[in-house]
Amino acid sequence: MSLLRTSVWMKQVRQFSLCSINATSNRACLGRPSRTKYLKQYKITLMQSDGSTIEARYAAPLHFVRLPLDLRTADENERRQRLALRKPQVKKMKEEVLDDNFDAGDYLKYFQK
């Protein structure tokens, strides 16, 4: 009996929610998450390769996502700079300079009684 009452009540609620008009800003949003598959999405700032930013939603809790630069569309100077940054850096060997002017006589005053 209670199952029947619950189903009748659910039909009334469903009918009521379909008839109501929700005039908020979410109605006009094109990227509104409407699927139940994506339950939790986090707001992120998405930076495109030209420098413009877009507020978006993403499954991981990231604050800022930067899209890579397309090297085919970049100008020649920028393309060279980006490719130079990808090359492995040459490690500079530091040559150790030893100071050979040690004089033991300077330290005799510390060892006398």
Automatic annotation (TrEMBL):
It holds the Pfam family Mitoc_L55. InterPro entries: Ribosomal_mL55, Ribosomal_mL55_sf. It comes from the Eukaryota. One of its GO terms (biological process) is translation. GO terms for molecular function: structural constituent of ribosome. GO terms for cellular component: mitochondrial large ribosomal subunit. This is (pine wood nematode) hypothetical protein. The lineage of its organism: Eukaryota, Metazoa, Ecdysozoa, Nematoda, Chromadorea.
